[in-house]
Specification:
The chain has 191 residues and is of the alpha/beta class. The chain has seven helices and six strands. It has a six-stranded mixed β-sheet.
Length: 191
């Protein structure tokens, strides 16, 4: 029982340390759409909030879905390029670490925000991340690696109408044909 109390105290201390350092730290677990979005985000910080210190991270694997990320974490696969931007210079340069595991990126910082992104060909289809508890597995892994629960959010990419199967799947999900659909209350607590 004492070790449980110690773990709870350590988790609370880590979360407080992440919140108190004045540096906004956000990491994305995704694919090329995530790389594009975080590159833009660094520029936005530099322009719109020049006094805000930040660290941005992106765990990138080309064409990776939530299901793919779960497979990589279960295999402890060094499948990622970890992009990191500390905002330390006027250009917001990125450092790349090839051959990284998901654990490498998650344990590099006390992340305030963790952002998940689904593959664009199935984006918006609820069953792609609820089947087999893929999203829950990914969230549990993040919390386990960090030792606390950061703010969690979703980077929703649009469906590209020029990719027929993606667009058809998305339209079917809106019509409820995948057994999915979302209820606004399901994402309560997410940023």
């Amino acid at each position: 029982a004492d070790w449980e109390i110690a773990n709870i105290a350590a988790s609370a201390a880590k979360k407080q340390a992440a919140a108190d350092d004045g540096v906004l730290k956000a990491i994305v677990i995704g694919n090329s759409a995530s790389v594009d979005a975080t590159a833009l985000l660094a520029g936005i910080f530099k322009t719109e909030a020049p006094d805000q210190e930040f660290v941005l991270g992106c765990m990138y694997e080309s064409g990776c879905s939530v299901k793919g990320h779960v497979g990589f974490l279960q295999d402890d696969a060094a499948a990622y390029t970890y992009y990191k931007n500390t905002g330390s210079d006027q250009f917001g340069r990125w450092t790349l670490y090839n051959g990284s595991t998901l654990q490498d990126g998650l344990t590099d910082q006390n992340w305030d925000v963790v952002i998940f992104q689904e593959l664009h060909t199935v984006s918006g289809i609820l069953s792609t991340f609820t089947d087999n508890d893929n999203l829950e597995t990914l969230i549990a892994y993040v919390v386990d690696q960090l030792g606390y629960e950061p703010k969690l959010t979703w980077h929703s990419v649009g469906i590209i109408p020029e990719i027929p199967e993606a667009y058809a799947n998305y339209v079917m999900s809106l019509e409820g044909d995948d057994g999915g659909g979302t209820d606004a209350g399901e994402n309560e607590g997410w940023v």
